[in-house]
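note to self — DONT lose this again. spent like an hour looking for the file last time. sequence + predicted structure for the chain T wanted, 281 res
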Amino acid sequence: MTRPITTVGLLGDTASRDYAAKLRLFNAFAEPEIRQAMASLALRPGMHILDAGCGTGEALGWLADEVGPGGTVIGMDLATPHVRAARSTAAESRSLLLQADVLAPPMAPASVDLVWSVNVINHLRSPIEGLQTLIALVRPGGRVALGQSSLLPDMYFAWDSRLERLVNEAVRQYYRDRYQLDERELTSIRAMAGLLRKAGLRDVHVRTFMIERITPLRPEDENYLLSAIFRDTWGTRLQPYLSSSDYQEVLRLCDPSHADYALRRDDFHFLQSFTLAVGEV
């Protein structure tokens, strides 16, 4: 099902925007921890679940595993390329798929037992409006689960905290400049528990799962870290924000052909947080 969509999100999201490749890489990388977060919800067979902002749809199958053949999983995403990418996963898991804005979902009120939404609320210009719209879809006694990665600074260079701090600051400044945003506009998502309470949800609780990797890395880990972070997020994008010497060091650490390539160092130790905030309707 497709609806006319005109929304432009805080981080530039539109119906035509496509970052499906990065979503696939992240889901393959973080699958163990995301499944662990899902398991913490103690979902029951037969439940009806909405994945709001389902992206390329890998989580549809994981949620379907939790609720069994008697349950229903619905995926919803704004972007046409993401919905297109999610079709095969949705078909395999017998999930339903909608293209729609989370601010105008084509669904009946009080029709699901759980809304699962990962790395979505921070893309909205009004997180509370988006959350209240999703809450309206949940039956009394149901829950909303908001997942967010990287609420804590990621650790890439365990051997060099100074360079890691400078790179994290450079990445944040790059995104502020790219989307013409003030730093405060990008930090409100860290108060997810308060957001759930402000929206009127009860029994709010939060749990953070650590995504932790050391060498040797799984292919899924190296593919994500190299392609989605080291090569495509860093690289020339960070040059204006680092000194010449620091930039050259980052290039060496991000170059698979260099002896200093970070992902194959014996002391490579990566940490990224995945936080799940849950509240009851």
